[in-house]
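Recall that a protein's primary structure is simply its ordered list of amino acids. Everything else, from secondary elements to tertiary packing, is in principle encoded there. The following example makes that idea concrete.
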Amino acid sequence: MPTLCRFGSVSIRIYADDHRPPHFHIVAPDFQVLVRISDLSIMAGNVAANRIAEPLAWAKVRREFLALKWAELNERD
């Protein structure tokens, strides 16, 4: 489970052998949100927008990197 970036106690992670569609997790001690890489929409989880604003801004400019990392960890032959 690579942690790709940290924002204090909040981290962005992509898990190996995870389900589709390609997504990443924003994880903190008190919440977890799943975010679709293609459009940065929230797939699961519920948290105030201000708690994930910085991780989403980071992800917005790195969507290609996130998609490549997800494929590296999850694409099967």
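The chain has a mean pLDDT of 94. The first strand starts at residue 3 and ends at 7.
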